[in-house]
């Protein structure tokens, strides 16, 4: 079987253990050797980030220093247009070739609203979807069309994702990390400790930069 290459996108405003620990658990469950973090510049489905692209990229570098699992792809930070996932996956597929098994990691919350994404039906023609559990979200989407699409493409075992380049959805039993970037930003604004919520190196960077204080 081929190695499965995985991509994990987000605003990372800031990157925290809900991101990192969840993906580390996912890697252990599915045998991933490398996960590429993909920070986006203009997220189409959510408010604009508080931290600048440069600051978010630097926080990611602090967070993964010394880790063999993670690397970073900053291509979306160089775009002024919205960071459509399908566009990025097209460029990644062109670079990595038609036969490379490729997976895009999303949370359960994203899966439930995937039919609101730009050209969402094309995603599985470019990659697999690896889904992590998220606290307080239902297991099934409200949309019957989306439910049928998920059921049609469901993989029962993660090893199936190595046997073809794209086309499957695997919902992993990852641990729940009840932490969010929004809650962390609120804590930082109130001068409350964020120890245990994000890496010490990221806390140090935020403190030095005076981020999230206003």
From TrEMBL:
Domain of life: Bacteria
Pathway noted in the entry: Cofactor biosynthesis; NAD(+) biosynthesis; deamido-NAD(+) from nicotinate D-ribonucleotide: step 1/1
Catalytic activity: nicotinate beta-D-ribonucleotide + ATP + H(+) = deamido-NAD(+) + diphosphate
Organism: Tatumella ptyseos ATCC 33301
Entry function: Catalyzes the reversible adenylation of nicotinate mononucleotide (NaMN) to nicotinic acid adenine dinucleotide (NaAD).
GO molecular function, one term: nicotinate-nucleotide adenylyltransferase activity
Enzyme Commission number(s): 2.7.7.18
Name under which the protein is recorded: Probable nicotinate-nucleotide adenylyltransferase
Family, per entry: Belongs to the NadD family.
Domain Cytidyltransferase-like: 7-187
Keywords tagged on the record: ATP-binding, NAD, Nucleotide-binding, Nucleotidyltransferase, Pyridine nucleotide biosynthesis, Transferase
Annotated PANTHER family: NICOTINATE-NUCLEOTIDE ADENYLYLTRANSFERASE-RELATED, PHOSPHOPANTETHEINE ADENYLYLTRANSFERASE
Keyword Nucleotide-binding in annotation: yes
Biological process, per Gene Ontology: NAD+ biosynthetic process
């Amino acid at each position: 079987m081929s190695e499965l290459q995985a991509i994990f996108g987000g605003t990372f405003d800031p990157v925290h253990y809900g991101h990192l620990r969840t993906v580390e658990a996912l890697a252990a469950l599915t045998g991933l050797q490398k996960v590429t973090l993909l920070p986006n510049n203009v997220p189409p489905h959510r408010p604009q980030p508080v931290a600048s692209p440069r600051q978010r990229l630097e926080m990611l570098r602090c967070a993964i220093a010394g880790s063999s699992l993670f690397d970073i792809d900053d291509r979306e930070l160089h775009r002024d247009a919205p960071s459509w996932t399908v566009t990025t996956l097209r460029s990644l597929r062109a670079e990595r070739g038609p036969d490379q098994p490729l997976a895009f990691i999303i949370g359960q919350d994203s899966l439930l609203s995937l039919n609101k994404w730009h050209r969402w039906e094309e995603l599985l023609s470019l990659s697999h979807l690896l889904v992590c559990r998220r606290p307080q979200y239902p297991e099934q989407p409200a949309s019957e069309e989306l439910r049928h699409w998920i059921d049609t493409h469901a993989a029962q075992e993660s090893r199936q994702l190595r046997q073809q380049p794209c086309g499957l959805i695997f919902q992993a039993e990852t641990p729940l990390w009840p932490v969010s970037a929004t809650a962390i930003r609120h804590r930082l604004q109130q001068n409350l400790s964020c120890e245990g919520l994000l890496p010490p190196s990221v806390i140090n960077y935020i403190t030095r930069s005076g981020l999230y204080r206003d």
